[in-house]
Specification:
The complex is a heterodimer of chains A (134) and B (143).
Chain A (H helix, E strand, L loop, with lengths): L6 E3 L3 E2 L2 H11 L4 H4 L1 H5 L10 H21 L2 E7 L8 E12 L6 E10 L4 E10 L3
Antiparallel strand pairs in A: 1-4, 2-4, 3-6, 4-5, 5-6
Chain B lengths: L6 E2 L12 E4 L2 H12 L10 E2 L1 H15 E2 L5 E9 L3 E2 L3 E14 L2 E12 L5 E15 L5
Parallel strand pairs in B: 1-4
Antiparallel strand pairs in B: 2-7, 3-6, 5-9, 7-8, 8-9
The chains are: A alpha+beta (134), B alpha+beta (143).
């Protein structure tokens, strides 16, 4: 039986500079806006910001945790990076079920996914589709 | 980074295709990536199948190595569609096309669409995606 909850949550987590630096090393994205506080202070952002793809990865991990193999093959994740996430922000990844459809024979579920802070400010939003067909 | 294939993103036109890029889902990259997005030590990461977001980010790294992105380039949106799984150690290739260039409030937004294939045996589509970046370069009029 496939578990399709109305709401799913990822791990609430604080994105500190060390974590962002680790992501920069892993991803090869060494844009100074993410890793160099001195450089970032001179930009419109005024401080370092988290890589959008790090937040994307956090959302994707939430889906991977809930849907396992079905996330790995037969899934879609489309997000827009709405606002910068400043280093040090505590983020809350979340998904809200939008549809659960079997019209085409296969079961396909769609979630509205967001990455926000504890005050509800949304930084990343989009949708995820998981196809449960074999 | 980049070697001889570096392409200046601001010089690309719509419909342009980048050279095929090959990369491997190696253990070091995959562990570091999964460690960074989960907040776990990469020593503790156990990997067999590389998740689609890991493949997409590895592909982004390959793109970064082939494109000359000016400092201050901003990632606007990202989508991925997973078609098949890929195991650790798999060698993949990526074909990338510039599918849209448009001016938004005076800045250039570039959409790069990519297909990632597993070429071991019969070529198999593993992942598709679209990346939109805003290049910090003012543009005048029609692009």
């Amino acid at each position: 039986m496939i578990d399709v909850p109305e709401e799913i949550y990822g791990e609430r987590q604080e994105l500190l500079q060390e974590r962002v630096d680790e992501y920069a090393e892993a991803s090869g994205d060494h844009n100074p806006i993410h890793i160099d506080p001195q450089y970032a202070a001179g930009t419109t952002f005024r401080a370092t910001i988290v890589h959008g793809m790090l937040a994307f990865g956090v959302l994707a991990e939430m889906l991977a945790t809930h849907f396992g193999e079905n996330w790995v093959r037969g899934s879609l994740l489309r997000v827009r990076f709405r606002a910068p996430i400043y280093v040090g922000t505590i983020i809350v990844p979340k998904g809200i079920l939008k549809s659960d459809n079997t019209d085409t024979g296969a079961r396909v579920v769609e979630y509205l996914v967001t990455c926000s802070d504890e005050q509800g400010n949304v930084f990343v939003e989009g949708r995820a589709k998981i196809d449960f067909s074999d | 980074m980049g070697e001889n294939l570096m392409v200046d993103i601001s010089l690309l036109s719509r419909g342009a295709s980048l050279e095929r890029i090959e990369f491997t889902l190696d253990d070091r990259y995959t562990r570091r990536y999964l460690g960074a997005i989960t907040g776990n030590s990469y020593d503790s990461v156990v990997v067999g199948v590389v998740p689609p977001h890991g493949i997409a980010t590895r592909a982004m790294l390959a793109l970064l190595e082939s494109l000359n992105l000016p400092a201050g380039t901003v990632h606007v949106s990202q989508s991925i569609t997973s078609h098949a799984k890929a195991m650790l150690g798999t060698k993949l290739s990526m074909l990338t096309t510039v599918t849209q260039i448009r001016a938004v409030r005076g800045y250039m937004h570039v959409t790069l669409s990519f297909n990632i294939y597993d070429n071991s045996g019969v070529e198999r589509l593993v992942l598709q995606g679209d990346t939109v970046v805003m290049v910090p370069e003012a543009v005048d009029g029609q692009l």
